[in-house]
Design goal:
single chain, globular, six-stranded mixed sheet, binds 1-O-pyrophosphono-5-O-phosphono-alpha-D-ribofuranose, 182 residues, Rossmann fold
Length: 182
């Protein structure tokens, strides 16, 4: 696919992502063999990753969705996490795996973990494709990580800027003039 004109540089290509998703799936296939977890996808960013990941999973599982928000159309986290839409399924006594596109400040995942643990799951693990380690404000243990990435404004493969660019099959760095002009 041709580079979108708003993208300065491709950070992770479609192929690199594909290979990494395969590696993560292999780890999950080993760890969740003979279990039937509920996979919690955090809307909206994680859906692209989720769709590719679950097609590589060889164990039975249920998918469910939760929606939280910490960014209000900005390039910086507001620090406030809100629950926008809850799960449909009960997770009491179930193995739960949260699937996220990115961990940045850690506030979203820390909030989600606290929230879901009150529902008494049997286990709770976290799988993220991207880790912006240097931006962490709150410690959060992540069990499965795809790539550690620098603190650049990344979009694509589910990640947005003002709801755009989620469809890009690669992860790219947005041109600064794009988020300055809007
Ligand atoms: C993004 C991303 C994570 C969160 C990570 O979501 O999908 O959920 O930010 O940031 P944090 O570690 O600093 O909390 P966003 O709120 O932008 O919503 P979206 O998934 O709908 O794009």
């Amino acid at each position: 696919m041709k580079k979108h004109p708003d993208i300065e540089e491709i950070l992770l290509t479609e192929n690199q992502i594909k290979r990494k998703v395969g590696e993560i799936a292999r780890q999950l296939n080993r760890d969740y063999k003979n279990k039937k977890p509920i996979i919690v996808s955090v809307l909206k960013g994680s859906v692209v990753f989720l769709c590719d990941l679950i097609r590589k999973l060889e164990f039975d599982h249920i998918i469910d969705f939760i929606s939280v928000s910490s960014y209000a159309n900005a390039t910086e986290s507001s620090g406030v996490v809100r629950l926008l839409m809850d799960l449909r399924e009960s997770i009491v006594g179930r193995d739960v795996l949260i699937v996220e596109d990115i961990v940045d400040t850690g506030l979203t995942l820390a909030y989600l973990k606290r929230n879901l643990l009150t529902r008494k799951p049997k286990s709770l693990k976290i799988c993220v494709l991207l880790d912006k380690k240097e931006c962490r404000k709150q410690f959060i243990k992540v069990d499965y990580v795809g790539f550690t990435i620098p603190n650049k404004f990344c979009v694509g493969y589910g990640l947005d800027y003002r709801q755009l660019y989620r469809n890009l099959p690669y992860i790219g760095i947005l041109k600064p003039q794009v988020y300055r002009r809007k």
